[in-house]
Amino acid sequence: MGRKSREIIRAKADEVIGDLTKAYADEWLAHYQYWLAARWIRGLDADTMRDILIEQSNDELGHAEKIANRIIQLGGTPTMDPGKLIQTSGCGYKQPASDPTDLKQVIQDVLDAEACAIETYSKLAEKYRTTDLVTHEMFEELLEDEVGDEEEWEKLAGIWIK
Q1: Region 106-128: what's the mean pLDDT?
Q2: pTM of the model
């Protein structure tokens, strides 16, 4: 991070990196959860849902990349050991339902993950509103994405969960 960039941050870099690291873990785990579910599901509507899950998985991976870049800008190191992602995560990981035809459960699991992300990003955007504008803006962008995702999954729930 450049000299001027360091001057404008009023938050403690270690604290920001800690919050970013937790969000990074959440995004990696969401990516993996959706990616694995896309490959696991079976049944009548599985092909349609598979495409949606793959797209969602790619979005979450993009979020992880943004967060990793910010961690590095601040002088930190993204979590290198994938085994530590669950320990670091705030939202956790939910493995796909044991029944690969239970698409209702897949939808509910995604909605739960998106709700946790929305809550997390809302709090973090507010936390850094006046102390780290770059991190604040990134969390606002992520929040906007997650809000849109939740809305789309709620529409899917209305179709598949009756």
Answers
A1: 97
A2: 0.93
